[in-house]
Specification:
The protein contains six helices and seven strands; from the N terminus they run H-H-E-H-E-E-H-E-H-E-H-E-E. With 200 residues, it is an alpha/beta fold.
């Protein structure tokens, strides 16, 4: 029998205690540690970065010799680290790449992460389709902006179309895993695709 929904569960309280903006920070922390994704001095693009929990974790581990760029449709309050840059950008906008280049002129990243999620309707098929669309946009962005050998982490709702999406990811990267971090809520359909070493 599943546990009753608790919006202020263990990870919520832990995030508050540690000064993290969202419980989801523990998801990227677990994934990054498991797959050795973060290192000092690297360049990271975080899609759907608000409210900034992932930026906090990645900015801390990458340090001032690197850069973390976080974008979302809503403003993200400053992380307080000069190497963590944020902007209100729409991944669907025709000039998205141009606006991104202002934040990171080289245009190349070592890691692209996406925690983008649609506004849920409560209709499973609709929510899965909207999630898959965002995941596909994230993949397209990763393939355009990653340096050779770069990595990609993307949230996706399991359901119709997922197998085809995973097949596309596998074709572009040397290794691919599907994971469900411990901090994921029990009732959530979300999983994370971790794709390592972009092929060229």
């Amino acid at each position: 029998m599943s546990k009753p929904y608790d919006p202020k569960d263990f990870y919520y309280r832990k995030a508050k205690k540690e000064g993290l903006r969202a419980r989801s920070a523990f998801k990227i922390e677990e994934i990054a540690e498991r797959f050795h994704l973060l290192r000092k001095g690297m360049a990271v693009l975080d899609l759907g970065a608000a409210p900034g929990g992932w930026l906090q974790v990645m900015g801390e581990q990458i340090g001032p010799t690197g850069v973390v760029v976080g974008v979302d449709l809503v403003p993200i309050a400053s992380i307080g680290k000069s190497w963590v840059k944020t902007a209100v950008l729409d991944i669907r906008a025709p000039d998205f790449a141009q606006q991104l280049s202002v934040l990171h002129p080289s245009g190349r990243f070592d890691l692209v992460t996406s925690d983008m999620a649609p506004k849920t309707s409560g209709i499973k098929d609709v929510d899965e389709a909207r999630s898959l669309e965002l995941s596909s946009l994230a993949l397209e962005t990763a393939r355009k902006t990653l340096a050779p050998g770069g990595h990609f982490v993307c949230k996706v709702f399991m359901g119709s179309g997922f197998d085809e999406y995973l097949k596309t990811v596998k074709a572009a990267f040397a290794r691919t895993k599907v994971v469900r971090p411990e901090a994921t809520r029990e009732r959530s359909f979300e999983h994370y695709v971790v794709a390592l070493e972009l092929k060229r």
